[in-house]
Amino acid sequence: MTAQILDGRAVAAKLLDAVRAEVAGLGRKPVLATILVGDDPASHTYVRMKANRCAKVGMESRRIELGADTTTGELVARIRDLSEDPDVDGILLQHPVPGQIDERAAFEAIDPAKDVDGVTRTSFAKMAFEEGGFASATPGGIMALLDAYEIPLSGKHAVVVGRSPILGKPAGMLLLARNATVTYCHSRTTNLAAMVSEADVLVAAVGRPGLVRGDWIKPGAVVVDAGYADNKGDVEYEAAADRASYITPVPGGVGPMTIAVLLAQTVRAARENRP
């Protein structure tokens, strides 16, 4: 068996075409404020990519750079200013942030109506209770990618490897909302290989390169690798592709979908908050 590629670049391009058309119909440019703390090279690259995508769909990207010695209080104050700025539609705090910062406190300073990256407790609760709100961008991108390929989820066993509050946990909740039976795995899971081998749908989201061995994959499973492109992903790709029915490449799978969903949710925020 050779897996079909879940092409995030192609699906994201279609979503961004729809975003561009929606922006044109608004009559004004939605504004996404991106906050970057410190000098992490990968974070700078991601922020540039997001700014470039904003420009291509007719949105405005407002970039705020803060020093590596920024305190939690200083960052929270800046985020609250942006939350109160009527010209800002969406707020993104690029993570990770330097170690001295309480990242959760910073996230919670974001007005939920502008939380287009889906990182606040309010957004998570609304998503979990299926009451609207903004999905965490990467899990939302994963779901949009699965939908684009018409992957059936109802009744399937979905295994999520990872439990971060902005990736693993919300991914599992979104799969549960589609009537999948969800198992969470993590660093304390006993016999991870056995758990993964039972998955009809696997989401690997731990940021540990090659953690999931290809021979663990159930024949015919759908494999979504949300690991970092710099680390070549969490899944042993070649061996997994020989067993899976569908698989995401790294890069080119989940990453482009994350940015596309972020911009789509920014346009939605602009429409709902400033009709």
Automatic annotation (TrEMBL):
GO MF terms held by the record: methenyltetrahydrofolate cyclohydrolase activity; methylenetetrahydrofolate dehydrogenase (NADP+) activity
Stretches assigned to the Tetrahydrofolate dehydrogenase/cyclohydrolase catalytic domain: 6-117
GO biological process, one term: methionine biosynthetic process
Sites where the protein binds NADP(+): 162-164
Catalytic activity: (6R)-5,10-methylene-5,6,7,8-tetrahydrofolate + NADP(+) = (6R)-5,10-methenyltetrahydrofolate + NADPH; (6R)-5,10-methenyltetrahydrofolate + H2O = (6R)-10-formyltetrahydrofolate + H(+)
UniProt key word Manganese: no
Keywords, ordered alphabetically: Amino-acid biosynthesis, Histidine biosynthesis, Hydrolase, Methionine biosynthesis, Multifunctional enzyme, NADP, One-carbon metabolism, Oxidoreductase, Purine biosynthesis
Pathway: One-carbon metabolism; tetrahydrofolate interconversion
EC code: 1.5.1.5, 3.5.4.9
Gene Ontology CC terms: cytosol
Keyword Lipoprotein part of the UniProt annotation: no
Lineage: superkingdom: Bacteria
Classification via Pfam families: THF_DHG_CYH, THF_DHG_CYH_C
Annotated ranges, domain Tetrahydrofolate dehydrogenase/cyclohydrolase NAD(P)-binding: 136-273
InterPro entries attached to this UniProt entry: Aminoacid_DH-like_N_sf, NAD(P)-bd_dom_sf, THF_DH/CycHdrlase, THF_DH/CycHdrlase_cat_dom, THF_DH/CycHdrlase_CS, THF_DH/CycHdrlase_NAD-bd_dom
Subunit details: Homodimer.
Family: Belongs to the tetrahydrofolate dehydrogenase/cyclohydrolase family.
Function description: Catalyzes the oxidation of 5,10-methylenetetrahydrofolate to 5,10-methenyltetrahydrofolate and then the hydrolysis of 5,10-methenyltetrahydrofolate to 10-formyltetrahydrofolate.
Protein name: Bifunctional protein FolD
Source organism of the structure: Amycolatopsis pithecellobii
Gene symbol of the encoding locus: folD
